[in-house]
Amino acid sequence: MRLLSLSSRVSALGLAFLAGCSGGSGSPGAIRGTGGDFLVLSTDPQPDSQVFLNDPIRITFSRDVDITTANLNAVSFAVFDLNGTALQEQPRGTFALRAAPTSDGVQNQRVLEFRPAFPDNDDYSNGGFKPGRRYLMQLVRGDPRRGATLQSTLGQTLSEAYTLAFRSVDGQTPSQLFRDAGFGGPQFVKGSVTPSTNGVASLGKKGQQSVEVRIDFDQPLNPASANVPTRLDPNPAKIDPRAVTAEEKGRIYLEYDDPEFGREAWIPAYVDVEVNSNEGSTVVLRPAGILPNGASIRVIADAKLEDLSGESNRGNADYQRVIFEFRTEAAREPQFDAVVENFDSAENVDIEAPFLEPIADLGVGYARASFAFEGSETEFNYRPTVREVVLNTDFADLAVRTRALQRLRWRVSVPQRDDPRGSHGARFGTKPMVWLVTGDFIVEGELTVQGGNGARVDTLNSANFPTAGGVGGCGGGNGGRGSPLTSDTSNIGEAGFGSNQLPNGGGRGGVHSCTRSGCGRGGGGGGGSFDTAGDPHYFTEFNAPTGHRVMLGKGGAMCTNNLGPQADAGPLLFLDSRGDNNFWGVGVDLNRQLRIGVIQVPKGGTGGGGGGDTGARCAPNAAFISDQKGGGAGAGGGVIIVKALGRVIIRSQGRINADGGDGGGGEQAGTNGNAGGGGGGSGGMVALMSGSGIHIAAHGATYADGLPTSNQNRAYDFAVSADGGVCYRGPFQGNPISGKYPGKGGPSSAATWNFNPVGG
To answer: Strand pairing of 57-61 and 269-277?
Structure first.
């Protein structure tokens, strides 16, 4: 691999060019020799340097930087292991501005700082930078796509692309992985307790604000649970406070002197590292239960407490273990700890409370909904007069039977929704499509928030023009672009966007062929994910994970022998370990009672990753335009929510569609024969709620594993659908793929999916 040394030469040449320029009037506030352009002047670290996992990356520009344009799309990273193999991972961190030193003392904001997130696990593996990695940081030139490039405070985009190569340290211990932020072990800075009155803390009884003790240190802390007891469960059913060991307490904890249990009695508490940065750290201790009455509580920081680099105060003879002390209130009168609420009258009910849901009608033996949906009520019968209607969820005008309804906001209260047969209501806008209906909600046409399709590649050798990803709406994320850089080789396709356009929240981009010696072809982009990665229940049988992994959401394997790495599918939106709460809202189970869904707000689908390019050299590469480029990825499906006091009826010709968009094929002619295809977007979300019943007319035959047996009955026409997209492949080479399901007959075979690197 010559990737890193080549990028270093580009950085050095760029600096030499700037130093060699002189003269020119430029513009006010410009650095001499830059002609007023927005350029990178220098970086810290230097090219080909080694960084610790807590080292920031500082980039000095010729003009003040607009911090609102700094994100991981404008400043992108390609990640490789020490052998040069591309990895499907991205750094995490935040951006900040600082002043560049000047001879005249003029204030400026010309230094952009990327601060990697610190790890918080025991093996230091989940931080922004990971051990033993090679990183290629790329800043693209001006790009017409919003949010894809840095800008100065004057609105200028970069005049020249910039690439920086560096590597992270390799090791296992804190001293090997992290730069020491200060001399010696961590020192106490200040402490506070809330809630408190004149410095006296409350007891933390139920119904009161929980007690929190905050301790600030001058250095970041080693996040391992053996150092800061973040994994300790203080539940008295699992640990006896009177018999706790020093190892179980951890190195920072609460204690007091108890008249019955003796001195230095341990107080169970939940411990969290709230802030951990090179400037210092904040630890929060939340007592589990009620604090002792009228007691002096001490915060103990053991001399063994380590800073991020592993230094402690064990060798400091003057160290004091008690770093903070506070008293609790003396409430010795008889009392009990409970919250009692009754509703014998309406005097304790706030009728004006700003709840979105309507107030219920209560009577003897019943409780039922009274219609008072949020927003202003408008009575009309909405029946489209044309075959296709585009509904903007941010702002729209609707033509109704009686009159024109102006200024329709994204939530509308209507008595009935009635589509004529064959009409098509398409989505547009950023917000979910929400229908609040007092009567029946009837669909006889198609209501869709489907994600847009990614563009296929129909040109040759035009890598300076990105292949567009599909556009998501109503909460769905955009698909990633193929060949996203306009001024240099795109070492990796653009990652798809997550729900509500979260950067890097979708499928990973396909990797350029140059990252693997003798490869000869870029890989397909990974698919977007929601509940599953890929489609584990797809009708065609496959052998995973060593066989047809495209069906698991991974991009098609790169290289002409289809044996290269595969781009990963996007992250799942259901992140906890439970399987019975993968939904939005509240579920009722007769055995387990209520189950709260893990998703707090409705979420749209995620976009797929752009396809990988094919070419002879990685960035920097002056002849990159001749690269063969990957396809654009499909966007995630949006969100449709229906709340009807009447029935929700989807008739035989009706359809509600929140499918993800399809990815486009890479060169040539969209066949993926010479470059990777874009990944498909994941399906979005459809939520149907009715006070009277939901009636869905099935379309054609059923679709289930092994059924139906006759190809003639396989219509695959789903009345309600939030299905993921696939990658298109044109007929120029191999068997074409026109969609996930054919009009009739069996789906494409596994061999068809894995012939050439289609997107996931």
So the answer is: unpaired
Domain with residue 284: its CATH number is 2.60.40.1220
Q: Exposed, middle or buried: residue 319 (CB in 10 Å: 0-12, 13-18, 19+)?
A: middle
* C-alpha 718: how far from chain center: 29
Structural domain span for residue 200: 188-328
Amino acid at 467: T
- Tokens 């080789």 found at: 489
The H-or-E segment that residue 9 falls in is: helix 3-20
Over the stretch 577-618, which tens digit does the pLDDT of each residue have?
A: 777 778 887 776 666 566 777 788 899 999 999 999 999 889
| Dihedral pair phi/psi, residue 553, rounded to 5° | 90, -5
Rounded CA-CA distance 220/569 in Å is: 34
Residues 154 and 20 placed together within one structural domain of the fold: yes
Asked whether the beta carbons of 125 and 133 are under 8 A apart, the reply is: no
Shared domain for 121 and 196, answered yes or no, is no
Choose the final residue of a domain: 308, 328, 348.
328
pLDDT digits (tens, 9 = 90+) for 164-215: 999 999 999 999 999 998 889 999 999 999 998 888 988 887 667 889 999 9
Considering the domain architecture, whether residues 164 and 204 belong to the same structural domain is answered as no
**How many structural domains are present in the chain?**
2
- Could you tell me if 321 and 217 lie in one domain? yes
**Do 256 and 296 touch, CB atoms closer than 8 A?**
yes
Alpha carbon distance 477, 107 (integer Å): 39
Cα 496 off chain centre by: 10
Rounded to two decimals, the pTM is 0.51
Tokens of 409: 């906001």
Q: Which residue has the higher pLDDT, 707 or 692?
A: 692
* 298 torsion bin: left (phi>0), alpha (psi -120 to 50), beta (else): beta
Q: Is 284 exposed, middle or buried (0-12, 13-18, 19+ CB in 10 A)?
A: middle
Residue whose C-alpha is closest to residue 52's, from 273, 311, 308? 308
